[in-house]
């Protein structure tokens, strides 16, 4: 039998910072949480203990592929429960990790496509530096020499600036995504879906499942046979959906648990 491939976004899809947990129930009824990421000696990301059990079972039933915009270094801070994934997609598809090591051929091919189809990274970085107001920008970051992002004070961020940036980037082959306190500018050909298709080719998977919450996950969801999005995030805010995509009502860490239940259900049926 060919394996089932599960490619899932991580942040605000399967794992959650304390600010994103959305624990709206009374304290006494809140789920037990498992810390899955520590940064600078502090707990950073969580999932419910039930979600951890579901992910462990999913790892035994399917090829689970963590699929993230995080850099390799940021991804390696995460300690997910269950079997160690043989593949991981980092930097929004810029790096395909095989047993923890970036596939050089894949990365070289990605770089060639970006050079051919997009404005250079330096142009976008310089534009952000020139137009972003230090009053609401906390950090400028370049990720893996592939894309850029800003860490901002969300309540001070002008909506019009984000819209103007999106138009400017569109004309240069880039896309813009606002996720929590981060604004990403990412080359359009740098996609999670392309890397997912490559993993499906290598594993022989004929059924692909995916989940994600942001604009940068839309291509991944569309490329999968079945997809799920939580009740929060850019896609939910835009009421985005498509054939084969299920819009879940759950928000926060409860959505991560629901997504894993849906993955397992589909994998069992397959």
TrEMBL record:
Lineage: Bacteria, Bacillati, Actinomycetota, Actinomycetes, Kitasatosporales
Keyword Hydrolase (UniProt): yes
InterPro entries listed in its UniProt record: HAD-like_sf (IPR036412), HAD_sf (IPR023214), TPP-like (IPR024197)
Protein name in the entry: HAD family hydrolase
MF term (GO), any: hydrolase activity
Source organism: Streptomyces gibsoniae
Domain of life, source organism: Bacteria
SUPFAM superfamilies in the record: HAD-like
Assigned keywords, A-Z: Hydrolase
């Amino acid at each position: 039998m060919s394996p089932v491939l599960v490619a899932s976004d991580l942040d605000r899809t399967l794992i959650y910072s304390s600010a994103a947990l959305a624990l709206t129930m009374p304290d006494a009824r809140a789920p037990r949480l498992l810390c899955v990421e520590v940064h600078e000696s502090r707990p950073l990301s969580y999932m419910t203990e039930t979600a951890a059990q579901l992910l462990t079972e999913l790892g035994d039933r399917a090829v689970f592929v963590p699929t993230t915009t995080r850099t390799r270094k940021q991804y390696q801070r995460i300690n997910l429960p269950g079997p160690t994934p043989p593949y991981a997609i980092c930097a929004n598809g810029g790096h395909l990790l095989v047993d923890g090591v970036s596939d050089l051929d894949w990365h070289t091919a990605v770089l060639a496509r970006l050079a051919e189809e997009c404005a250079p990274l330096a142009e976008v970085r310089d534009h952000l530096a020139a137009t972003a107001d230090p009053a609401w920008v906390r950090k400028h970051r370049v990720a893996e020499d592939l894309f850029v992002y800003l860490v901002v004070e969300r309540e001070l961020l002008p909506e019009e600036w984000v819209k103007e940036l999106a138009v400017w980037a569109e004309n240069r082959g880039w896309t813009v995504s606002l996720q929590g306190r981060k604004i990403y500018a990412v080359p359009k050909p740098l996609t999670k879906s392309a890397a997912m298709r490559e993993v499906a080719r290598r594993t022989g998977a004929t059924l692909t499942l995916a989940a994600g919450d942001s604009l940068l996950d839309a291509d991944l969801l569309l490329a999968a046979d079945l997809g799920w999005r939580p009740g929060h995030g850019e896609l939910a805010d835009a009421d985005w959906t498509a054939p084969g995509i299920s819009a879940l009502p759950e928000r926060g860490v409860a959505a991560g648990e629901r997504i894993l239940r849906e993955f397992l259900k589909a994998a069992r049926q397959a």
